[in-house]
Structures are given as structure tokens and as C-alpha cells.
Amino acid sequence: MPSLTDIRIGGVARLSSCDWPGQLVATIFCQGCPWACRYCHNPHLIPATGDEQIEWASVLGFLAARRGLLDGVVFSGGEPTLQQGLEDAIRQVRAMGFRIGLHTGGPYPGRMAQLLPLVDWVGFDIKAPKAGYDRITNARNSGDKALRSLRLLLDSGVDYDLRTTVHPDLLSDDDLDVLAAEVQAIGGKGHRLQKFRADGCSDDALIRSRALHQHGSA
């Protein structure tokens, strides 16, 4: 069983109908992310350690009581692929009879390759056109890593949802045109745009942005 240091859990949503479209799931929020996107609506999950740490054993106990009641379990974050114990955790949850969903931005393509055979669906967050990634994530070479992970996903045959969060201060219409062309070029299907959500965001400049409110009222 993964120990607390192998998989850090910062929160659990016991019932969700929106984290995996069409599925009724529990969502496990892993603590820690190598990226620091300004629009993140779970900024408390970015640090490696957080105020709330939930023991993995208690999560397993909760899931054991939900067998037959939930369609699946989604590992989210933060960035779940940061967790060294994620593969073991997924195997345990699969053994309980749950289908597995994964939310990721793809910062660890090597780990992505190991996990894809174990998951049933991936919600993949495409942050920007490749050239604009570092500006969004505040991490060097993040675009190369994300693109490698995305290619792995598209080649795997695993069901997926490709989505991009849009704030007008961060992504222009030209950026979105370039991004759409890049996704199409590598065979991505159903890529969708989702509006920036102020709820949970800690970046006051983005929340108060004049461009955001003008865009919203257009």
C-alpha cells in the first residue's frame, strides 16, 4: 500500500458528476504540481505539502463503502502524475472494481506512458500553443513535455477530453487559432475551450481584468 509520502492527498470529492463526463465518480485531489498557472482554481494544491493531508488508507476505506454506487474514481490535482505512488494507488482502486479517470497537464511523459494502460479516460489540459507554454505554466520546457504526453495519449486509444482554459489576458484569439491548428495536426479530436473561472483563483489581476469583463459582456 502506498504510504502517505508516496501519494499525498489534499482533498476528496465524495461524489461528482462533472469531473468525468457522463460518469458518477469520486475525485481524489493529489497535492503538488510542478507548474504554477496563474488561472489555477486549486492553488492550494500547487505546493508539495498542504494544510490538509488525507491518509491513503482512509481513502481506500471510503471507496470500499462505495462499491457498486460509483462508476469510477478520478485522480486529479494538483498534478497527479507528480506522485510516485500513483501507479500503485490506481492498481489498488482498479482491483476494487472501479474504472479510472485521470486529470493531467502531461508534465511527466515517462510516467504518462506507464499510467495509460491502467486508465479508462483522461481529461487532458492543454495550456497553450507550444510556444506559449512556459509563459502560462511558469516552468521551462513545459510545452515539449506536454506535447509528448499528448501524443502518447492520442496513440494509446484511451478515451479522452481535450480542454483549454481561456483568459483573454493570457491567450489571444491568434494564440487560440495556432493552438487549434497544432491539436488538429497531431490528430486530437473534440478539443474544447472553457472559460476562466474566478472561483478559487488567487490571482487578483486576472479576476479584476478589464479584458475579461469586456470579453464576458461581448
What are the main properties of this structure?
218 residues, alpha/beta, TIM Barrel, seven-stranded mixed β-sheet, 8 helices, 33% helix, globular
Notes on the structure:
The longest helix has 15 residues, at about 140-155. Helix 6 links the parallel strand 6 and strand 7 (about 190-195). The protein is built from eight helices and seven strands; from the N terminus they run ββαβαβαβααβαβαα. The model has no long low-confidence stretch (mean pLDDT about 95). By secondary structure, the protein is α/β, with parallel strands linked by helices. It has helices at about 55-65, 85-95, 110-115, 135, 140-155, 175-185, 205, 210-215; strands spanning about 10-15, 25-30, 70-75, 100-105, 120-125, 160-165, 190-195. The protein has one domain (about 10-215): Aldolase class I (TIM Barrel), CATH 3.20.20.70. It starts with 8 loop residues before the first strand and ends with a helix. Strands 1-2-3-4-5-6-7 form a seven-stranded mixed β-sheet.
